[in-house]
Amino acid sequence: MSKQLKLSFLSAARTLGVFKLFRRLTQSQLRILCYHGGAIGDESEYNGKLFFSKKTFEQRMKWLREKGFNVVTLDDAVKSAAGQRASPPLATVITFDDGWYSTGSELLPVLDQLAMPSTLYLCTSHVLEGTPVADVAARYIIWKSELKDVTLQGYALAVDGQYALSAAPVREQLGQKVAAWIEGFGSDKVAASDALEQFAKDMQVSSADLQLGSRRFQYMTGEELRALSARGCAIELHGHVHRYPKGDPAALKNDLRLCSESIQGLGLPVPKHYCYPSGSFDADAPVALGELGVVSATTCIPGLISKAENDQAYFLPRFLDGRDVEMLEFEAEMSGFSEFLRRVTGRAASPAYS
């Protein structure tokens, strides 16, 4: 089905009151929403799943309020799904991944104004390093550049060379090489920023376009995270590094211990909820997470939650919103109609590992 045909179908369904009907039918089921950073500049055009417009985010949140959705804390939601407490109708959890500075500067103020709680799943290594996230910034520069080919010299043996930028695999390879080179500077903020500025210059992307001073490619500081926590945003686990070690439960537990220790070291409460990096998980997750005292984990598989008992709590479905999602599609998803369509067409994915 084409996008336009899909939107026409959803528009007709909404006009006929189908969305309202499904909100009533599914009001006892939990929804979890996922966002990442906000857009300070044109980041949402570069990566609309990673950076989201404040204006669109505000439109989404106000629609939830107008339609009777009740935004609750993740902790309360998980307890309700486990049958440990009652849940309000259309209970919804707002979550953010990673820890981008723009999450706090662009998106969280919207929730503050609406008195809505939220959860931030924090990847702690980038907070401790305090440098721009190399792979995201490098790929942005490549995306922003209008060059068809480029010759790089004076970087590192692995980076120097000629690149035909018209080929997507070449652009990806260049992004990986430059990111690895910049990551070699560790927590040296000046060296990392200078390296990105040099790469941008060679790619004919101006400093004004790169806007490193806006912190658009950086995470929040410990002080900013503590302020966020005081405003009603729970800081939870997203790993110390942004990678899920499939098939290696020992590595998973070590990564989460480092993440938890780092969060507590920043003066924040002990975290007990986890979000799989990039939605990657395996069959080892429930045992490993349970041994660490983690009580829930979210995926990037869309769906509604009727209950979350035992291992179900470690594979909670969550809808990843983004620039590519039209408001009509968002309404259909949150009303429960999209999940109904996935089930009747056999396209519903089980959030549980199989």
Automatic annotation (TrEMBL):
Localization in the cell: Secreted
Keywords: Signal
Ranges of residues in domain NodB homology: 222-294
InterPro entries the UniProt entry points to: Glyco_hydro/deAcase_b/a-brl, NODB_dom, Polysacch_Deacetylase
Pfam families, sorted: Polysacc_deac_1
Listed PANTHER family: POLY-BETA-1,6-N-ACETYL-D-GLUCOSAMINE N-DEACETYLASE, PTHR34216
Name of the protein this chain belongs to: Polysaccharide deacetylase family protein
Source species taxonomy: Bacteria, Pseudomonadati, Pseudomonadota, Betaproteobacteria, Burkholderiales
